[in-house]
Amino acid sequence: MDRTILRRMAAFLCLAALLAANGFACFAGDSFDLDRDNLPYTGDWDAYTYDEEYYGQLRGQGASINFYNWGEYISDGSDDLIDVISEFEDLTDIKVYYTNFATNEELYAKLKSGAASYDVIIPSDYMIARMIKEDMLLPLDYDNIPNAKYMNEGFMDPNYDPGSVYSLPYAWNTVAIIYNTSMVEEEPDSWGILWDETYAGQILMFNNSRDAFGVALKYLGYSLNTEDPDQLREAAELLKEQKPLVQAYVMDQMFDKMENNEAAIATYYAGDALLIDNDDIDIVIPKEGTNKFVDAICIPASAKNKLGAEMFINFLNEPVVNAQNIEYIGYGTANLAAYCLLDEELRDDPVLYPSQEILDNSEMFVNLSDEANLLLDQLWTEVKASNKNVMIWGILPCATIAAIVIGKTWYRRRTAKRHRYMMED
Question: Cα–Cα distance between 213 and 424 in angstroms, integer?
């Protein structure tokens, strides 16, 4: 048997033994059910130190890594929390070049085009499965990621990456309705509020196909992962009907708009509601169910510094680093030791760690077939190009424009008629 495979098997056996020894069964498969009364890691972490020998492997070599990540998705030193990138650079002498993407589809397109090379990326579950299928990722060498021992076993060996060969979980959460309590009269309980004409021009919708269709499919009572062409087309028609009510299709622009009371309702990732500086913001998980997701750290096949990338992945899973980073980004962590370091208020926050009832009524995205992905892309293009947008203008402006057009037509006809009479005279 290949030595690499043997090493990986040994690493997972050690991890399982560690978790068993601690008497900890935190997550069970995709249930994500958290046993908050049986935490394995306790004690004083104030004296925790980094492994200087490990992190010094590339010192003095002018090494660097390119890191491609979601916006607002790593602690930058604000709120008295760790500046993850600066701390890593000081510790390792590895320069980190950091850029952002807005959607999984944008990340995929950038990598697929070969327009840029990255060493570390953080895609979501279904996109990881797609990249594995298309040989776009490198296997992780767990010998270079010793902090994998802290991972929750319930997140290892996921459906999107059997054996956790290509990815290590970074954060997880659910999709929710984020709304302004001063602008929405009653607490919503359904995705249906996104089609309520009462809020025309005050609704923010996902600006990516998978999440947008996920919302529509759930509202219709279908699976997030349906490949039935009729169901996908029905969801597309529903999104077209919604378009006149939508103020904007957004991703990170949601933060400013909701913070400044520029919109009443948004669809987004639940934990992000905690980052919006507006006391009137609240969230709800609709009764029809929602998407639960995992974002995980991967190394693209085009990476130029795999060792540096694995050192960075390991650093992100230093318990003290992970705990502060997860507090900043506002999602749930898959790192057991880091979870134990969080304040009890954070550990018990239902936005970060939803109830089992909510999770049981949720689905994870899976990678769709090539045919379904192609149809989804085509339908999304149709939705965005749809001209069912009169309501975006508003009734009064449209009436004004119509009046001007009618007035000009009447004036031209009247002038022509007068001119005709003058010629006859």
Answer: 65
Q: What is the distance between the alpha carbons of residues 338 and 151, in angstroms, rounded to a whole number?
A: 9
Helices 209-220 and 370-385, axial angle in degrees (round to 10):
90
Selection from 285-299, 374-388, 398-412 with the highest mean pLDDT? 285-299
* Cα–Cα dist 121/128, whole Å: 10
Q: How far apart are CA 132 and CA 139, in angstroms?
A: 10
Between CA 122 and CA 107 the distance in angstroms is: 9
Share of the chain above pLDDT 70, in %: 80
Contact between 74 and 326 under an 8 Å Cβ cutoff? The reply is no
Q: Give the pLDDT confidence of 214-255 residue by residue, as tens digits.
A: 999 999 999 999 999 999 999 999 999 999 999 999 999 999
> End-to-end distance of the chain based on CA atoms, in angstroms?
106
pLDDT at 421 over 80: no
Length of the chain: 425
* pLDDT tens profile 338-392: 999 999 999 999 999 999 999 999 999 999 999 999 999 999 999 999 876 444 4
| CATH code assigned to 174-291+371-390 | 3.40.190.10
CA distances from 149 to 145, 166, 336 (A): 9, 16, 9
Q: Please name which of 172, 171, 239, 184 lies closest in space to residue 211, comparing C-alpha atoms.
A: 239
* Residue appearing with tokens 């029905």: 234
Read off the pLDDT of residues 368-379 as tens digits, 9 standing for 90 and up. 999 999 999 999
Q: What is the DSSP string of 367-399?
A: PPPHHHHHHHHHHHHHHHH----HHHH-HHHHH
pTM: predicted TM-score of the whole model, two decimal places? 0.81
Q: Which residues contact 53 (CB under 8 A, 6 or more apart)?
A: none
Q: Which of 70, 83, 35, 38 is nearest to 271 (CA)?
A: 70
Look over the chain and give the mean of its residue pLDDT values, rounded to a whole number: 86
Distance of CA 334 to the CA centre of its chain: 15
Instruction: Dig out the tokens for 171 from the structure.
Output: 């954060």
AA identity, residue 42:
T
- Confirm if 126 and 160 have CB atoms less than 8 A apart: yes
- At residue 285, the 3 state secondary structure works out as coil
| Strand locations in 56-167 (E) | 64-70, 95-101, 120-121
DSSP H helices in 179-318: 209-220, 229-242, 253-259, 306-316
Right CATH for 3-172+295-361 from 3.40.190.10, 3.40.50.300, 2.60.40.10, 3.40.50.920: 3.40.190.10
What's the rounded mean pLDDT across residues 80-93? 97
